[in-house]
């Protein structure tokens, strides 16, 4: 059995099941899902008969990380929903290659195919390019932002950033974010850099402060401070916490740490009043960059 046979038999069906569920949650019918995934409608019905949780469990048993799988699936769904079939195929292929490159299926391969040599390193040599799922998640969130007709209305004067962190992130260098600010140009949204690990320092450090208290919070987006926006977010039953004003950035982070340490549940939004030389900003948090952006866009809906 080739490594590709293993992926085709054990991984791709589970990913298709997850994609079918997520596309259905976004309102797509089974016929439309079948066309997007390139498989029959009866097969989509069969995939839907198994729970989302069961698919994740099966992939975890193979050695895959459930959080990483969920993030990749979320990005793939956005690519399909926006008819970006080429990017969908590129990202999915890259993810499958990365599974082999990291040796996540090696033990399973040796178990089901005894002819595989004990010292086999074929996949390690063949698949060298691996796209980071957190970087791709930030990129996908930015693309969704650009498509929104009123996106420029939530951009702060100093610009914004979108960040996403793996569960073991300790420093801003571990966090994916844009290497330059995302700014508004007329009514358009423009990124002055590319999403990379360590791209953002300030927004990444804000996220890390919240993550240290609430590990499930893994992404953040900084948007324009606006009382009407705060009211809309609150009306959507999102938890908004206020902080500031501050006399310096150091004071801001001390205040942030104190506020977060006193919270009994994770915040959806931290409304920072800014201070001397510090623009007021709303920091929106969620489990992923795409979900954080969905919350932020409530302000312009």
Task: Give a written overview of the molecule.
It is a single chain. This protein has helices at residues 3-25, 30-37, 41-48, 52-62, 66-81, 85-101, 106-112, 122-126, 133-147, 202-213, 227-235, 249-261, 289-296; strands at residues 162-164, 176-178, 182-185, 188-191, 195-197, 219-224, 240-243, 269-272, 281-286. With 301 residues, the protein is α+β, with helices and mostly antiparallel strands. The strands form 2 sheets. Strands 5-2-1-6-9-8-7 form a 7-stranded mixed sheet, with helices on both faces. Strands 3-4 form a two-stranded antiparallel ribbon. A hairpin with an 8-residue loop joins strand 8 (269-272) and strand 9 (281-286). Helix 5 packs antiparallel against helix 6 (85-101) and helix 10 (202-213) runs parallel beside helix 12 (249-261). The chain is globular and about 70 Å long. The relative contact order is 0.10. The model has no long low-confidence stretch (mean pLDDT 92).
Rg of Cα set? 21 Å
Treating each run of at least 4 consecutive H or I residues as one helix, how many helices? 13
Poorly predicted segments: none
How would you sum up the global shape?
A: globular
Q: CATH H-level name of the largest domain... which superfamily?
A: Class II aldolase/adducin N-terminal domain
- Label the CATH architecture of the largest domain: 3-Layer(aba) Sandwich
Helix residue percentage: 40-55%
What is the N-to-C order of secondary-structure elements (H for helix, E for strand)? HHHHHHHHHEEEEEHEHEHEEH
How would you classify the helix and strand content by structural class? alpha+beta
Cα distance, first to last residue?
52 Å
